[in-house]
Write a structure and sequence with these properties.
homodimer, 128 residues, mainly alpha, Multidrug-efflux Transporter Regulator, Chain: A, Domain 2, two-stranded antiparallel ribbon, 2 strands, 3% strand, DNA-binding
Chain lengths: 128, 128
DNA sequence: TCTTGACCTTCCCACCACTGGAAGCCCCAT
DNA sequence: ATGGGGCTTCCAGTGGTGGGAAGGTCAAGA
């Protein structure tokens, strides 16, 4: 299977797949003509990576998750711990964004939004 | 005023200030020795930028905001529109994160997290 | 006057996770 | 033989810094 098909099946762009090989997340074989030859196993990994990335795991986390996935002896506690760290990370981001949102939303409400120059949004950015 | 003092007063790292000059957000003067010479006006701008960035505005947005800020003839509607676009952007991000959070949280709940290898988190990343 | 140390300068590299583009093979259909 | 698509590698860029080297400048102390 060439990269185009692997891309279709995994939903990842060709560029991303090459990048993942570059950083040793996957190791597809090579045909005699130099083309990458993907086995089902490789595509399976790509799908795994695509899902993990969609959940916001970093590439480094993905590396660890892949290793755990391939390890029959793994303890689910290890996976769970990683996921929980990541959850905390996400929560932190959400809180940051919500705090931004609140401030911004207040400012927008306070701004007349007409043709006049007076603007509490700019005023708030300006002064203490 | 040298960059160190401007950095202290604005709360921005020296590196960031130099970067902002590089991309023409600010234009401090220069002393005869080549040192940047910040006027109060420059520091004022830096503080403005720092606040805007803290609210999550992109550098490009900041450029526009600065221009509006300096324009006595501006219409507050323009500022408001920009802020509202940004608010929508933030809301979108929050929603993405919350959807991640929900999925991840469900998976964590479902995972025993013990010494056994069975793990719904990995299982969910693997299959459809 | 000399030295020390804290500034300042520019320049280049690294980060993260890709993405775009150029130059050049390879393969298949016509 | 030709054309078009897919494949390859390599280089460069993104945003917004951060780290560090190599070297100039300044003020204070011995």
């Amino acid at each position: 299977m060439n990269i185009g098909e692997a891309s279709e099946k995994s939903g990842l762009p060709r560029k991303t797949i090459r990048y993942y090989e570059d950083i040793d997340l996957i190791r597809p074989l090579r045909d005699r003509n130099g083309y990458r030859a993907f086995r089902d196993k490789d595509v399976h990994k790509l799908i795994f990576l695509s899902r993990a990335r969609a959940l916001g795991f970093s590439i480094d986390d993905c590396r660890t998750l892949l290793a755990l996935w391939e390890d029959d002896q793994r303890a689910s506690a290890d996976v769970r711990a990683l996921a929980q760290d990541h959850l905390a990370h996400i929560d932190h981001k959400i809180q940051d964004l919500q705090s931004m949102r609140a401030t911004l939303s207040d400012l927008i409400t306070a701004c007349a939004g007409d043709h006049r120059p007076d603007c509490p949004i700019l005023a708030s950015l300006e002064k203490e």
